[in-house]
Design goal:
The chain is α+β, with helices and mostly antiparallel strands. Helix content is about 35%, strand content about 25%. It has helices at about 1-20, 60-65, 80-90, 100-110, 130-140, 155-165; strands at about 45-50, 65-75, 115-130, 165, 170-180. Strands 1, 2, 3, 4 and 5 form a five-stranded mixed beta sheet that branches. The chain is globular, with a radius of gyration of 19 Å. The relative contact order is 0.17.
Length: about 180
């Protein structure tokens, strides 16, 4: 996991350099890697904090947010890529009741002291233009745990692509929820 995070930070730094080239202003952006349970920021340091598709500690986020600060998080729902999980017989949230993650995060945020906790959900069709695109996703994300380690994975993948091919591409779903909470 740390290797992936390091690669992501390197990519972010390169993107920042590209965006800043030709700009006279110095960047105030920093990239730091730290444990979500022990953020190395002072109390009430931020007005806004966000988290996308990653774990967070509600109490740590609460601690580093200024009074009336806002926290936003987007997370993957249990029924994301449902047809893929069904085809492979395993998925990133297999066995978890739909809505359980959203409810767990709501409770954690409330317990930490957040108020005005609001959630929005969406579940839309998503299309991958080519089998290589979907294969890349499956190889680099936890959508199908241990993808490629089972002897039948590539055959299952080929069958999935054939069965779910649509004129727009290979069809699956994207299910997410967004929570906003105020300190």
């Amino acid at each position: 996991m740390l290797c992936i995070v390091s690669l992501m930070i390197d990519t972010a730094r390169r993107n920042l350099e590209k965006a800043a080239s030709g700009s006279a202003n110095g960047s105030k952006v920093r990239f730091v890697q730290m444990d979500a349970d022990h953020l190395e920021f002072p109390n009430e340091f931020f007005n806004t904090a966000s988290c996308r598709h990653s774990v967070f500690s509600a109490s740590e986020v609460y601690r580093v947010l200024a009074e009336d600060g806002i926290f936003l998080t987007q997370q993957v729902s249990e029924h994301d890529k449902l047809n893929i999980a069904q085809a492979f017989g395993r998925g990133q949230h297999s066995g978890i009741k739909p809505g359980a993650l959203l409810e767990r995060y709501r409770q954690e945020l409330a317990h930490a002291g957040f108020r005005q906790i609001e959630a929005r959900e969406y579940n839309v069709m998503e299309y991958y233009a080519a089998p290589e695109d979907l294969l890349f996703l499956l190889m680099h994300t936890p959508i199908v745990p241990h993808f490629g380690e089972h002897a039948s994975d590539l055959e299952t993948f080929k069958q999935f692509v054939q069965y779910h091919w649509h004129e727009k591409g290979i069809r699956t779903n994207s299910a997410r929820f967004m929570i906003t909470a105020r300190k």
